[in-house]
């Protein structure tokens, strides 16, 4: 008996089943293979992202000192990891709901889908929107902290521009969330709104590149200046620079490749990569700063981000000789000329002292004389 298959391949033979109203539904085996392969691949991708998010969230909570847990950077990074974990959890559970069974998917009959499945799908969309908000807020805060040493005339416009750039993807994401939730409840396709999803990916990629370009440019300039001063070991500054390059390049690369490759898993990795990169820089820099602090006399804890913004001069020792600092390996953390005094000046010396201050701050100098001290 000769049997003919569609397109000459048995994987394209058709399977027939019926809806409750008697309508026939025809599906070929190849479509079933594609359906299951996609579900398996996307669940593996979600599972790997979920594990990485949980591990990094635990590390962030354990390795961050209690005095830094009240900072905005820690709060936004911790919330971003939490929302990303919840998002991936609900999106993974979604593939175990009746939405992803063969009969409802191919027949369009979702009468067997209960309210629990609808709630899981909607929660995944809502947590993704909250994740985008936390990512943008964290980028705004970190860029402003890194650019804290800029003059006020440049810092304030930069803050306004950063907030504006962050609000654009947040607005697009909220709009897509509303449309997606309405489509889930109405059991409709989001095909007519594909342009909005594409625009959302574009604005998120542009925002990431904008923030991280400022971030890397400012720190690269600071590193160049420190190299000119003869400081070779940059400590936390170099770490933040490397993580900034990673935060900008890798997610943007994944976001661009998705337009040239038919791999649905690439687009979902962008937000997770940014979420994982932001806390990594603070954890790594904090560890490097702790190693430097062990070489000093015990003192009160300092704020990590103020240290990265060149505000460590008040807590650095000024009465140690250059030879002693070199011997203990402390020279790598020197931030200004006042930290490299050869010897402590005497009280009767008239030699002016060079000090490093932040812009837009007035300083009163005190000159010691033989009879007393005068205020200039």
From TrEMBL:
Protein's name according to its UniProt entry: Mating-type alpha-pheromone receptor PreB
GO BP terms in the entry: pheromone-dependent signal transduction involved in conjugation with cellular fusion
Transmembrane region(s): 46-64, 71-90, 117-146, 158-179, 199-219, 239-260, 266-289
Domain of life: Eukaryota
Keyword Transmembrane helix: yes
Record Pfam families: STE2
Keyword Transferase set for record: no
GO cellular component: G protein-coupled receptor homodimeric complex
Keyword entries, A-Z: Membrane, Transmembrane, Transmembrane helix
Organism the protein comes from: Penicillium atrosanguineum
InterPro entries: GPCR_STE2, STE2_TM1-TM2_sf
């Amino acid at each position: 008996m000769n049997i003919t298959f569609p397109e000459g391949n048995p994987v394209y033979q058709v399977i027939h089943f019926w809806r409750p109203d008697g309508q026939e539904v025809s599906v070929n085996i190849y479509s079933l293979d594609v359906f299951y392969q996609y579900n398996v691949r996307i669940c593996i991708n979600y599972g790997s992202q979920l594990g990485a998010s949980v591990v990094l969230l635990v590390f962030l909570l354990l390795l961050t000192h209690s005095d830094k847990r009240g900072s905005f950077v820690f709060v936004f990074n911790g919330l971003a990891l939490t929302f990303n974990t919840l998002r991936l959890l609900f999106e993974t559970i979604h593939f175990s709901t009746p939405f992803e069974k063969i009969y409802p998917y191919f027949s369009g009959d979702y009468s067997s889908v209960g309210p629990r499945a609808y709630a899981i799908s909607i929660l995944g969309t809502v947590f993704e929107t909250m994740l985008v908000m936390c990512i943008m807020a964290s980028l705004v805060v970190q860029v402003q902290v890194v650019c804290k040493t800029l003059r006020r005339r440049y810092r304030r416009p930069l803050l306004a521009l950063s907030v504006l750039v962050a609000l654009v993807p947040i607005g697009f994401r909220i709009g897509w969330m509303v449309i997606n939730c309405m489509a889930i409840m109405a059991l409709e396709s989001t095909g007519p709104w594909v342009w909005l999803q594409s625009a959302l990916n574009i604005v998120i990629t542009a925002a990431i590149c904008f923030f991280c370009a400022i971030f890397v440019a400012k720190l690269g300039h600071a590193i160049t200046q420190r190299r000119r001063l003869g400081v070779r070991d940059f400590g936390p500054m170099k770490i933040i620079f490397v993580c900034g390059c990673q935060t900008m390049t890798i997610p943007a690369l994944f976001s661009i490749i998705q337009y040239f490759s038919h791999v649905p898993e690439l687009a979902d990795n962008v937000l997770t990569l940014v979420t994982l990169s932001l806390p990594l820089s603070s954890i790594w820099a904090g560890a490097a700063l702790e190693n430097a602090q062990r070489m000093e006399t015990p003192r009160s804890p300092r704020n990590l981000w103020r240290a990265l913004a060149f505000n460590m001069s008040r807590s650095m020792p000024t009465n140690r000789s250059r030879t002693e600092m070199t011997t203990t390996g402390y020279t790598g953390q020197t931030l200004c000329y006042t930290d490299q005094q050869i010897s402590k000046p005497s009280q009767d010396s008239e030699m002016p002292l060079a000090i490093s201050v932040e812009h837009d701050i007035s300083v009163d100098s005190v000159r010691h004389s033989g009879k007393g001290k005068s205020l200039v």
